[in-house]
Specification:
globular; single chain; 5 helices; 22-stranded antiparallel beta barrel; 5-stranded mixed beta sheet; 6% helix; 708 residues; mainly beta
């Protein structure tokens, strides 16, 4: 397969296929372009798939209410599950499957041991826009079972020699002020000096305690109370000549919770919420601060717009280091060895290279685009315990892939896309021993000594799609795409009950994604609708082992289906309205049972109204509705297990406003405007102790921003 792929690559570079050649085009309207879907710049109207682009203006409006990207994605992306309101994005799936989170195309997720912390990897102040591609895809390799969330960072403003901004804000609970006040500071500069350009930003945020609608402190498990977040981002560019450019970027992100609070633990089965209180006098905090210890991303990008007369080259070299520390848990105990509990961390080191070629050809009324190249990735991931025990051994993955993607535009109306990707993956694991974990002195898991090996995966994935743009009133598309997923192998290894790694069901899962949709435009009204179906032969769910009390992964075929709708209406020059609705459902088809809350979210609707009543003043009102989902019965003892808790509906309103005075902007935002007293969808769906925390009560942000 690789010989065939490389032969095609060589042929495309060497030949103009007897066609007129042209320099790759650059769309003019920046709000109507994306780079994620096909790894090239293209107009949204030429993409036969469901995509969402979140603009800088939308990000700025959200920052007035909250700096949490989870909330932003939940409100603006149809198909994205509701926010958890914590530092974890567990249950916040995209169309029922885990998305791959990236910064400028560099993976931030840790798919070999998915800790569900990838969404919080960059401060919103450093982001220019967010591109969300929905549905399984292999465009960027492993881990994109639900799609891709790509944070596109800011670029230098070359129209000005130098510019910048600084912002300061405070945030506090309007329900009970005590200890809730926090501060946030962010600043950025950018500019150009001859052939050099630069962007630099820094942000620091310190949270006070987070209070629910009753004024109680929200529980600490993945909590944000007393957390400190720091982000430093730098991008340096050099224009070598008119067609060649070099860019070096670095991102540092750290977010830790260092608190003197302790949890009063409840559960959905007792009907008692989990909340936090000040630790009793003389009580020492157990464990280390949870959160990201300090994650590093470095990327070097080289572009040549005229490698050949009709061919553009993009070369990316990147490196990433991650250390994510989790909460202390008594379930990670082993009294016989002196461990009363434990705390794990995910360590991941990635190094990668991507070479992407883009060749364009023109035959009369037919435009052809060929995107092809090679991806190489080395991902070394493990999950040790802070105390030195090894829970998940080091997994060393080497991934080499070749791909060819084609795009045909016929008569400026009919778009056809088709592509193929071949992945060759070697995953090496040394001999290891599973941990002995005890729920009490008498109930412990049995440790197994497992012989390591190198596992080999070869996956060929395809995609084909069509779109017809003849009528603005009805522009339909249909697509089929596949994703190759070997994600969360670590979870399978740490619960192994065999002595040979080759006997563990670590096979790669191929996800087939089918989608049908359309968009319609009538003057100031835009409407989008899509339906989809996603299948996989080897999905992963949880099942309780009654003898040990530990949830074990179960691999079984899955089917997920749903639909989404979006309406955007410009009422007049001062008033804009948009609304979304999405519903997803899924089953384990082997046992014909519904999938739990870890994958499938409750129905979700959102509305947003933006109003400019007078010059220099803007108001924004956002509404989030999460519906019921009650697919499971209680056990014989009347309790719910795992992620099968019943979800009751809830509604939340947010309000923001700003007033501009020359270079100054004064702003305020109110999260949970009417102090709705509710549990998030995850808090209701998860029956695990400590997860049933109530959500944030009315919280106010107020600040000032200066631009220069």
């Amino acid at each position: 397969m690789f010989k065939t792929s490389f032969s095609i690559l060589a042929l495309l570079v060497a030949s103009n296929l007897s066609a007129n050649t042209q320099t790759p085009k650059q769309p003019e309207d920046l709000e109507r372009i994306i780079v994620t879907g096909s790894r090239i710049i293209e107009n949204i109207d030429e993409v036969p798939a469901s995509i969402t682009v979140i603009t800088r203006q939308q990000i700025e409006a959200h920052l007035k209410v909250s700096s949490e990207l989870q909330n932003l994605l939940s409100i603006l992306v149809p198909g994205m599950a509701p926010s958890t309101g914590t530092s974890s994005n567990s249950t916040q799936t995209l169309r029922g499957r885990a998305p791959l989170v990236m910064i400028d195309g560099v993976p931030q997720s840790t798919p070999l041991r998915n800790g569900s912390l990838g969404v919080r990897t960059l401060d919103p102040s450093a982001i220019e826009r967010i591109e969300v591609i929905k549905g399984a895809t292999s465009v960027y390799g492993n881990g994109a079972a639900g799609g891709i969330i790509n944070y596109i960072t800011k670029k230098a403003n070359t129209d000005k020699g130098f510019s910048g901004e600084a912002s300061f804000s405070t945030r506090f609970s309007a329900v009970k002020l005590e200890d809730s006040a926090g501060t946030r500071f962010s600043s950025a500069i950018n500019g150009q000096l001859d052939k050099f350009n630069y962007v630099m930003s820094a942000s620091s945020e310190e949270n006070g305690v987070q209070r629910d609608a009753e004024g109680d402190i929200i529980g600490l498990k993945y909590g944000l109370s007393d957390s400190t977040t720091q982000n430093y981002f730098t991008k340096l560019g050099y224009q070598i000549d008119g067609s060649k450019a070099l860019a070096l970027s670095y991102n540092y992100y750290k977010s830790e919770q260092d608190s003197d609070l302790v949890d009063v633990v409840g559960s959905i089965n007792t009907g008692i919420k989990t909340y936090a209180i000040k630790a009793p006098v003389g009580t020492e905090r157990i464990g280390e601060p949870q959160g990201q210890r300090g994650n590093h991303n470095v990327m070097l990008k080289y572009t040549d717009d005229e490698l050949l007369d009709n061919t553009r080259l993009t070369l990316d070299v990147y490196s990433q280091t991650i250390e994510n520390v989790f909460f202390y848990s008594p379930k990670l105990s082993n009294p016989s060895e002196g461990y009363e509990g434990g705390q794990s961390l995910i360590k991941s080191d990635k190094k990668g290279l991507r070479a992407t070629f883009n060749s364009q050809f023109d035959w009369d009324k037919v435009e052809g685009t060929f995107i092809y190249g090679i991806d190489a990735l080395n991902d070394v991931t493990s999950q040790p315990m802070v105390d030195g025990r090894i829970w998940v051994p080091e997994m060393d993955m080497k991934n080499l892939a070749g791909f060819v993607q084609t795009k045909w535009v016929l008569n400026d109306e009919f778009i056809i896309k088709a592509g193929i990707r071949q992945d060759s993956i070697d995953l090496s694991v040394d001999d290891f021993k599973t941990l002995k974990l005890c729920t009490n002195v008498d109930t412990c898991s049995i440790p197994f000594s497992v012989k390591g090996d190198t596992l080999n995966y070869d996956a060929t994935t395809y995609n084909v799609a069509m779109k017809y743009n003849f009528f603005d009133a009805f522009s339909p598309f249909i697509s089929f795409s596949q994703g190759a997923d070997i994600s969360d192998i670590g979870r399978l290894l740490r619960t192994a009950t065999v002595t040979e790694i080759s006997d563990i069901r670590t096979e790669a899962s191929i996800i087939d994604n089918y989608e049908l949709g359309f968009s319609s435009e009538f003057d100031d009204l835009r409407f989008e609708f899509s339906v989809y179906r996603s299948t996989s032969e080897l999905g992963t769910t949880n099942k309780l082992d009654p003898q040990t009390g530990i949830y074990l992964p179960v691999r079984a075929p899955q089917k997920i289906w749903g639909y989404e709708a979006l309406v955007v209406y410009k009422i007049n020059e001062a008033l804009n309205f948009n609304a979304t609705y999405s519903q997803v459902e899924g089953k384990n088809t082997q046992e014909d049972v519904y999938l739990g809350a870890k994958q499938i979210s409750a129905p979700k609707a959102t509305m947003n109204l933006q109003w400019q009543p007078i010059d220099n003043t803007n108001l924004s009102l956002t509404y989030l509705y999460v519906g019921d989902r009650k697919r499971f019965d209680a056990n014989d003892d009347g309790n719910y297990g795992g992620d099968q808790g019943p979800i009751d509906s809830y509604s939340v309103f947010n309000l923001s406003a700003n007033y501009n005075i020359k270079q100054w902007s004064i702003f305020t935002g109110i999260e949970n405007l009417f102090n709705q007293d509710y549990y998030s969808a995850r808090s209701q769906g998860y029956s695990y102790k400590g997860y049933n925390t109530k959500s944030l009560g009315t919280t106010v942000t107020a600040g000032i921003k200066y631009s220069f």
